[in-house]
Write a structure and sequence with these properties.
- The protein is α+β, with helices and mostly antiparallel strands and 786 residues long.
- 56% of the residues lie in helices and 16% in strands.
- A hairpin with a 2-residue loop joins strand 2 and strand 3.
- Helix 10 runs antiparallel to helix 11 and helix 19 packs antiparallel against helix 23.
Amino acid sequence: MRFRDGTSGQKALFALLAIAYCIGVGFALEDKAGRIGRPDVGFSLEGNNVSPTRWDAAAAGLWGGGQILTVNGIAATGVALKEAIPPTLARDVGSTNTLRLRQTGGRIAEVTLPVRLWTWEDALFAEGTTFGLGALFFVVGIVTFLLRPYVASSWALLAVCCFVGGELSVLLLHLPKEDVWQALYFRLMVGCSAVAPFHVALAFPVVHPVLVRRPRIVPLIYAGGIGLGLLQFLGWSSGWVGILKHFGGFLDTSVLLAAMLCLTARNLFLAIRSRDPLVAQRARILVLGTAAGVLPLTVVNFMRNTLGILVIDMRIAYATPSLFLVSLGYITVRHDLLNARVAVQRAVIYAAVVFVLTLVAVLLVAANPYAVAVLLFPLLYVWPRFNARLDAMLYPKRNRYPKIVRSIGAEMQAARDIDQVLAALARTPGRICDARHAVAFLLSGVVDEGEQVRTAGVEGAAPRNLAEEVVVQLLRTTRKEIFRDHIAVEPQYTNIRAECYRAFDRLRAEAVLPVLDDRRVIGGLAVGARTTGDVYGSAELDALSTVAQQAVQAIERVKAAQRLDLREREFSELKRFFPPQVIDQVMARGGAAELRSQRKLVTVLFADLRGFTSFSDRVEPEEVMATLAEYHECMGRRIGEYAGTLERFAGDGLMVFFNDPVEQADHVDRAVAMALAMRGDVERLRGEWRRKGYAIDVGMGIHTGYATCGFVGYEGRRDYSVIGNVTNLAARLSDAAGGGEILISGRVMAELRNGCRAEPVGELALKGFQQPQPVYRLIAPPPSPA
C-alpha cells in the first residue's frame, strides 16, 4: 500500500502525530532564541541534582553532574532547592558561584562557575544531544511510515517516535511558572511516551491478536497517557501539594518502567517459545534493543525520581534509546533497509569524492583563484565515466538489467504460443536476480478452461490448482507482491498463516508477484530464494514487474495471432460451402463456432449431368476433368450469385440449399431462379459440347422442408450439411428429371412467388417414398437474380 492510498482519516492522524513533534521543535527554538545572549550561571537543577548548561562548566567539574550540597556556602540539603537556591545565586556577568556537590561514586567536589552570556555553542553542548536525538526519532518514524504506511507496526513506531521526539526536544527547557503551554505540552508528551511501550508491545515483533480483535485499545492506551500528563501538569501548576506532591514526582517513570517490562517480557517469551523462526529472530532483536537501549534509561530515571540517586548524567542516559530505535526500525523495514544498502554505499563514496574535490579546490584557490576553473574542465569529462564505473561496481548485475530485459522481451515477442511465453517468464528470475527456481502461471479462463504453468529450476511435476491457494487468492485481491517474510508479522495473515506457508512451500517461493492485465490479476510469478542469499530489492522487483508486463503483451499478441489464424482457417473452411456474402455474415456472427446444429426450413436443389457416365468412358480423363471444371465454374458462379450454400460437388452432381446459415425469406424463389439460370448456362455450354461430340445435359430437382443443419465430420475434415427427407426427395426428383428438366415438388410449387411457370407432371413413385409424390416441371425462362 502506498501513502497516497490511505483514507483521509489515516492521513489526518499521520499529520497530527507529525504536528505534535513539530510543536515541541517550535517551543525548543523559541526557548533557545530567548536565552541566547542572557546571563547564565552554568548549571541547571533537576530535582536535587545539578547538570552543566555550558561546556566550560562541564570542564570545571560538572561533567557528570551530581547531588548538590551547598551553594555559595548555604546548605541545600533537605530544602526545596528550586525555591531556596535561586535567591542565593549571583547573576551578574563576571560574578561567580561556588557549588559543593556529591558526584557519582560518592566523591565530594567543589566547583566555582563564572556567570557569562549564554551562546549557541552552549546550547549545542547542553541540549544538542537530546534535541538531535528527538529529531532522529522523528525522522526514523516518518521514513519508516512512508516506506510501509498504514500497517500496525508502522503506526506504533510513528507514535513512539513523535511523542518521544517531542519530549526530548523540550526536555531541558527552562520552564518558568507562567509558561503554561510549554509545561502542558511537555507533560502530555511525557505521559504519552510513558504508555507508548504498551502500544509497541502489542505491535512488535508480531501483531498481538488483541490488537487485531480490539483495535480501539490503542486510543485507550494514549488516553491513559494524556490523563497521566494532565495529572503531572496539575501537580506542576499547583506547586505539587497533597497527594500530587506524594505521587507526581515518580508516577510517569513508574508507568514507563512497567510498560518497558511488559514489552521486554513479551519479546523474551516469543524469542524463546515462538515456532516461527522469523518471529523469534525479530523478538531477539527487540530484547537486545530494549535491554541495551531503554531499560537503562528507565531504571536510571526511576532511581533519580524515586530515590534521589543520580547514577549518571541524564543526557548520557538519553542517548541509549537510539539502540532501541534502531531495532524497531530494522525489523519494521528490514527489506527496505537492505534495499537501501547499496544506495548508502554510493552516498558515502560520493561524499568522500566531494570532500576530496572540495579540499583540492580550496588548495587551488589558495594558490591561484583562477585555478578552480581549470579543474572544472577535466571534471566535466571524468565525472560521467566515474559515475558509470561506480554503477558497474555497486550494481554488477543490475547494470545489465536493461539489456537482459530487452533480450527477454525479444524472446517473448518471438514466442509462437502461450507456453513459450510462460517458459521465458519462468526463466526471468534466474537471469535477473539469480533465483534458484521460479514458477510462472496463468489462471484458468485467461487462455482456456485450464491453468497454464511453467517452472524453472523446479524438479518434478508443476504445481496445479493454484487458484485454490490462499496466497494466489490474496494476490488477486491485493494486486501486489506478497513476501514470505511478511506472513509471520502482518496482522492480516493471522488466521491463514499456516495455509500461506503451505502455499509458499508448494511453490518453493520467497515472494509471489502478480501478472496484471488492466489491473486484473491473470496469473503470477513465484520466485524462490536467491543464490546470493540477499533479499529481493526494489530494483529487482521493478525489473521482474517490467518483464511480467512484457509477458502480458506477448500473451495478448499470441492470443490475437491465434484468433487470426483460427479465423483464417474458419474462413478457408467456410469458403468450401458458402459464397462470400454469406461468409461475411457468418463471421460477423462469431464464425464457424456459432454454426450449431439446428432444425430449420430449407430449400434443397440437386443437379446431375445426364449422359456423363458414357461420356467419361469414351474420352480421355484430362478432357473429362476439363469439362467438369467448366461446368463447375458456371454452377459455382450461380451459387454465389444467388447466395446458396454448397453442400458438396460429387463428380457430375452437386447439392445446394438455401435459408441456412443465413436467413432468406425468399429461399424457394432463390432456388428456382438459380436452377433456371443454371439450365441456361448449361444450354450455352452444350453448344460447345455438341461440337466436340459430347452428349451431356443436366437434370435438377428442388424440394423445400425441414431438415437438421450443421457440421458433420471430424476436426480437419468437416462438411456443412443438411440431413432429412427434404434432401432425399430433392435427390429423387433430380434422378427422375430428364436432360434439361427441372422437377419441383408440390410444396415448392405452392410457395413460388416470383412468377415462374410450371406444368404438372403427375404423381411419381419415387424410390424411398411409399406414396406417389406430385411433381411439376419448370418451363419459365430464368428471372434476374434477387
